[in-house]
Amino acid sequence: MHSKFHTSLDAMVQHYLIQKDEYHPQDEQSFVISHVHLLAKLAQWLVIYAKNKITLDLLLAKINKKEFIEKKYLAKCEGIIQETDFTLSGYLYKDEDKQKMVFTKTEQSHAKVVKAHFKIQAQISNATWLEATLITGRKHQIRASLSYLYHPIINDVKYGTKQETKKYMIALYSITLIFHKLSDHLSYLNEKIIKIPKNIIK
């Protein structure tokens, strides 16, 4: 999210809220507006921002818990997948030599349990568009899971793709956020669905 070549998204959001008179840095003491959750540099995401410290603390406590914030993703991966609707469970660990996450069906002491649900949205040429719903939220879980299935995400060289386009970003998108059971001043968000259109499928 930070680059010496481009303005960061954090800076753009801060500027936008200052222009709208919804954020006053001089009144916030040490609080600086920033994204709530981790971001994948090469993917394209819906991003949650908190305007104040109280909201930030509440969201940080909920962000990785599906019962509070449900996230759906769209991935374009190599090849034609036969199963139209499936759940993939296993373990995820970091390969320190290759500096990437690895999905496996074999339990390992240093691995974390992972689970995700996948549903085919479209199949075009030699590629499959999958909607992914994370039941556990782990770093690079979707990327490593699809690599394990021998259907890596288009442009995701790190996880084994053979199909590349001229685009810099990998074909992984955060498309939906659904809020549940939030309390206090965030309760107005409950059952709200925030999503981007699926017209990116092509």
TrEMBL record:
Q: One MF term from GO for this chain?
A: RNA binding
SUPFAM superfamilies given in the database record: Pseudouridine synthase
One GO biological process this protein is involved in is: pseudouridine synthesis
Q: The organism sits in which domain of life?
A: Bacteria
**Pseudouridine synthase RsuA/RluA-like domain: which residues?**
16-147
Gene3D superfamilies referenced in this protein's UniProt entry, alphabetically: Pseudouridine synthase (3.30.2350.10)
Reactions catalysed, as given in the entry = a uridine in RNA = a pseudouridine in RNA
InterPro entries the UniProt entry points to: PsdUridine_synth_cat_dom_sf (IPR020103), PsdUridine_synth_RsuA/RluA (IPR006145), RluA_PseudoU_synthase (IPR050188)
Q: What protein am I looking at?
A: RNA pseudouridylate synthase
Give the source species.
Spiroplasma kunkelii CR2-3x
